[in-house]
């Protein structure tokens, strides 16, 4: 599989301030609430904090899955399309077959990590509902999560990452999340 080309305009490095992160997590949780989710799965490392915040708002379980696409935290690494999922995922054994799941990550860069994790979950847990949400979606990816905050065309520095010492620019204020319309929420439309 050829990885999608992430877009880096090299005009800035975006920064997601902590308060903006909390606001975005609340908006994502509100958007996903109609789907009556049972578990939020955070992709380690970047999706763990988002999973915890969204699960707290939804009052549901949170689990971590370990998958890695980038080999380091350096800016603008090329997408390889190869994702390593750890074979030992003991936290996933707590999820019942046929559950209603939301998989979250900090960013959909190429989309390879979300694809790998959702494929694994589909094969092993046969969820009744399997949705995805991210804080940021790179404009170069051909993957569209069900819910996301910002479309970006440059690298993003998240609040849980070590300060790189590089000049950053805060992401614009998020007033609403974006939605992929292929999975409408249950109930009347």
Overview of this structure, please?
The structure is a single chain. The chain is 21% helix and 26% strand. By secondary structure, the chain is of the alpha/beta class. Strand 5, helix 3 and strand 6 form a beta-alpha-beta unit. The longest helix has 15 residues. The C terminus is likely disordered.
Characterize this entry briefly.
The protein has 189 residues and is α/β, with parallel strands linked by helices. The protein contains three helices and ten strands, in the order E-H-E-H-E-E-E-H-E-E-E-E-E.
Q: Descriptors for this entry?
A:
globular, 189 residues, 21% helix, alpha/beta, three-stranded parallel beta sheet, seven-stranded mixed beta sheet
SSE map:
Blueprint: E1 14-15, H1 18-32, E2 39-44, H2 48-58, E3 61-68, E4 84-85, E5 100-108, H3 112-125, E6 129-138, E7 147-152, E8 156-157, E9 169-170, E10 178-179
Parallel strand pairs: 1-8, 1-9, 2-3, 2-5, 5-6, 6-7
Antiparallel strand pairs: 3-4, 7-10
